[in-house]
Amino acid sequence: MIFYIIIMLFWLLLYSLHCRINQLNEYRLYGMKTQVRRYMYVIVPLILIMGLRHVSVGNDTEQYLYRYDNSLALLTDPYVATEFGYNYLGYFFHYILGADWQVYLFCASTFICISLLCFVIRFSPNVYLSLFFYMSIGLFYMNMSGLRQSLAIALSTFALLISVAKKGNKKHDIIRLIISIAVVYGAFTIHNSAFIFFPLLFCTNFRFSKKQVFFILVVASSALLLRPVIVQYAGVFLPVRYQTYDLNTEYLANPLVQVIPIVIPLYCLIKSNTENDGKYDMKISLMFIFAALNIFFMSLLQSNNQIGRLAYYFLNSYTILIPYTFYSQTRNNDNRIVNMLVILVCFMYFLISVPGGTLSIDNYKFFWQ
Fold it and tell me: On the chain, which terminus has fewer CB atoms closer than 10 Å, C or N?
């Protein structure tokens, strides 16, 4: 736990030193490659704790070690045939490169962290603050355990970045869309849950008003009431491999998991400001779509874990919406106090939820320990 806390405090320190800098404006001055180089030092501590962790850190890490050691046999295993991309990735590292498990884990962690950095650079007004929320209430928990889905999410993130990088040239935009679809397909071959990301590539040009966002969030929240019906018919849309799972098994989830996904976007909706025409820009509108999808799938988590885990693809939207809310507000003492309370609450949530959590990341050890 102490390593996690040190990294979070490091990011908060950087935020306090740069809190007056709107880094979203910097993106207009510098290209993505330049920005990644400038902020790479910020992500290095995260790469180290993810890539150098012991196999006991993370509930599923040991399972992925087993799959890595048996990647050759899994190439012909019909049970995992639809996720052949992950099998060939393990085979390439293990048998072609001759890399051991720790090298593979470090490379995979580096790829995941770089995708995260590119995402927050592209969408967030403050990289440091977004990274803090990523670790406190974002995807960090799952990234420390679910390696395969984390890689699929990282690929899907790159597909999104390619898709939103439109320049107005119709031919080039079509090429970018085709490349994005191909990248998401690559993610699908690693973890079939990535199928959920395909339609999102066509939703990057919308702009919503506050009323429209509120309506979208209400519709997504209705899944709490309609959960039994949705779960009953969800098997039709699940990949074949996951249709064999029992969709009626109750999954015991932390009640906060049901509340936080709704409270955060509502707070952001109320406290944030729109553009001069009364609508959010396309990037923030897309993040609200992601937040709504996160609410929808998190609402189903308690009925079925396999459906609920689709929410992970959209969870990092909160790491963008909260900093955007901070930076779009009128600067006054009341807003500063509320923002500090939000940061404190998220930090406390991390301290309370990690110890004894189901993903088993609290007792951190390096691989040599």
Answer: C
CA–chain centroid gap for 325, Å, is 19
DSSP three-state, residue 285 = helix
29: Cβ contacts below 8 Å, ≥ 6 apart? none
* 19 to 8, 13, 37, 118: CA distances (angstroms): 15, 10, 20, 20
Token reading at 339: 């923002």
3-state DSSP call for residue 274?
Answer: coil
Residues 6+ apart with CB under 8 A from 113: 43, 46, 47, 50
Indicate if the pLDDT at residue 248 is higher than 50. no
The whole-angstrom separation of Cα 153 and Cα 113 is 11
- pLDDT single digits (tens) 202-239: 888 899 999 999 999 999 988 877 776 776 666 555 65
Angle, helices 318-328/127-137, rounded to nearest 10 degrees:
130
Segment holding 351, helix H or strand E: helix 333-353
Report yes or no: 364 and 265 within 8 Å, Cβ to Cβ. Answer: no
Both structure tokens of 202: 């066509």
Structure tokens at 163: 């898709």
Q: Is the pLDDT of residue 260 over 90?
A: no
CB atoms within 10 A of CB 205: 11
Give the start-end residues of each E strand in 49-196: none
| Cα 235 to Cα 229: distance, rounded to the nearest angstrom | 11
Tokens 């790469």 sit on residue: 47
Amino acid at 47: I
**Distance linking the first and last C-alpha atoms of the chain:** 15
Can you state the angle between helices 101-123 and 282-300, rounded to 10 degrees? 130
Unique residue bearing structure tokens 């009640």: 255
pLDDT 10s digits, 114-148: 999 999 999 988 899 999 999 998 889 889 988 99
Residues 203 and 289: beta-carbon distance below 8 Å: yes
